[in-house]
Design brief:
The structure holds three protein chains of three kinds. Chain A is mainly alpha-helical. Chain A has one domain. Chain A contains five helices and no strands. Chain B is mainly alpha-helical. Chain B has a single domain, classed as Helix Hairpins (Orthogonal Bundle). Chain B contains four helices and no strands. The longest helix of chain B is centred in the last third of the chain and has 32 residues. The radius of gyration of chain B is 21 Å and the shape is elongated. Chains in contact: A-B, A-C, B-C. At the B-C interface, helix 1, helix 2, helix 3 and helix 4 of B face helix 1, helix 2, helix 3, helix 4 and helix 6 of C.
């Protein structure tokens, strides 16, 4: 827990805005610079800031370890799942246009969004896990 | 070609060689890891330089007349390479922490001395 | 000579090389990590100068952010001073000079900076820029969410044209996370056999 009142106040105020900015970067990856990798690092940075300022116990209550471990695998599974949907529907692996048979052009946008979401989820959880483990937290 | 235009070609070799020298010459394992990261950023510089075009703009497509865009393919390759370099650095640091707890030191020559002493004891 | 891109490029790279040189020279690991953070920030500005916006974003977030944090937390567990020693290692210096000379000789074949006829620019890049993502189904072209193209060409290439590479790269990141968990798992006391034993002057 940081002893500085200034750091704790400002950090506590900044934390939700960093998360919202990370979500903005994730969602606007197709329109401007951004995408899954950048958004994942931003979200992980927000939680690392929180744990530096408020202590590991409070951050673990906010975001339990089992959830972070789960989302590490869920991101990769989401990506591969989008690919397998293409196989199941009779086309090639990672074909996005089969996700929405009536509007294949919409489906390509949907496929790219899902895939970027998977990447962002994995990158955020992995960076958070790495910093937690190197910091000495068990499990 | 003036020196300004070929500066990037020389600069990326200089950065790579700086990283390689640190990797070989310094004994501290964390310093070696930093040198490896430096080596990788030299490669990124070469790739991004290859993608630049005369009068090009960032590859964000805009409405209206077609502009000359810089090549987006090197950007994609380097994007993934940056995150992979972070991952390998994290695994290297985890191994270094394990080495530190096992040997009590992270200098490569001291670790070699301990290993040799153990081999002589055991043999 | 009057091209501002080239001028800023040279200035930033000189500063970056200076920061990297200082980081590799110093024996204080904490200072070296800070200098590498500065180097990453300068490099992020350099990528923005060379019109690589996504790369600049990622380098600033990952290089100057996550990488510095990771190194600092690792330094708390490994010690922050490097052992003093000779600054010049003759074999390494010779190797580096020879390799560097060969590489600089090899770069004479690279295309001119900004050449529009360079092989990398005329091969597949025009296809990626005049892209067909979102154009599946001719009548749908103007109805979809993006108005028939994805504005960020880098994301279009990353998620659609080179989707396999991104998938495997996500798997690599996942594997690195699992590796860190496995390596740093808390071990029973019997595995830490050297802490008080043979190296008594540690």
């Amino acid at each position: 827990m940081s002893e500085s009142v200034v750091l704790r106040t400002i950090g506590g105020m900044l934390f939700p805005y960093i998360l919202v900015y990370g979500l903005y970067v994730q969602m606007h990856g197709e329109i401007g610079p951004g995408g899954g990798f950048q958004a994942g690092v931003l979200v992980a940075a927000a939680f690392i800031l929180h744990s530096l300022l408020f202590g590991k116990e409070l951050t673990d209550r906010l975001l339990p370890t089992w959830l972070v471990d789960l989302s590490m695998s869920l991101g990769v599974l989401l990506y591969i799942g989008v690919g397998i949907v293409g196989l199941v529907k009779g086309s090639y692996f990672l074909d996005y246009s089969v996700l929405d048979p009536t509007h294949p052009a919409h489906a390509e946008a949907l496929g790219m969004t899902l895939v970027e979401a998977g990447v962002g989820l994995t990158v955020a959880s992995v960076i958070l896990t790495m910093v937690r483990k190197v910091n000495g937290e068990p499990a | 070609m003036s020196l300004f235009e070929t500066f990037n070609s020389i600069a990326f070799v200089v950065i790579m060689m700086l990283g390689l020298y640190t990797l070989i010459a310094r004994q501290n394992l964390v310093k070696k890891t930093l040198g490896l990261g430096l080596f990788q950023t030299g490669i990124f510089l070469m790739y991004i330089t290859l993608g630049v075009r005369d009068g090009g703009v960032a590859p964000i497509l805009q409405e209206g007349a077609p502009l000359t865009y810089t090549n987006p393919l090197p950007h994609v390759l380097i994007l993934t390479a940056i995150v992979v370099s972070l991952s390998t650095m994290a695994v290297a640091l985890a191994l270094i922490i394990g080495v530190r707890e096992e040997y009590g030191t992270i200098e490569a020559d001291e670790i070699a001395t301990i290993d040799r002493a153990d081999a002589e004891e055991g043999a | 000579m009057s091209d501002p891109v080239l001028l800023i490029n040279v200035l930033l790279l000189l500063l970056a090389i200076g920061a990297a040189l200082a980081a590799m020279w110093t024996r204080d690991l904490l200072g070296a990590v800070m200098l590498m953070g500065i180097y990453s920030l300068l490099l992020a500005i350099e990528w923005a100068n060379l019109f690589a916006m996504d790369v600049s974003y990622t380098e600033a977030a990952v290089g100057a952010g996550a990488s510095t944090i990771l190194l600092l937390t690792a330094l708390t567990r490994t010690g922050t001073r490097e052992k003093a020693g000779p600054n010049f290692h003759p074999t390494a210096l010779l190797t580096v000079l020879v390799t560097g000379a060969v590489l600089i000789y090899g770069t004479s074949d690279l295309p001119r900076f900004g050449d529009p006829l360079a092989p990398a620019t005329v091969h597949v890049a025009p296809e990626y820029i005049t892209q067909t993502v979102g154009k599946v189904g001719a009548t749908e072209a103007t109805e979809n969410d993006f108005g028939d193209h994805v504005p960020n060409a880098v994301t279009a290439v990353l998620a659609s044209y080179r989707g396999y590479d991104t998938m495997f790269e996500t798997a690599v990141i996942f594997t690195a996370g699992v590796c860190v968990i496995i390596i740093l798992r808390p071990l029973a006391g019997s595995a830490r056999r050297r802490t008080a034993g043979s190296k008594e002057d540690a």
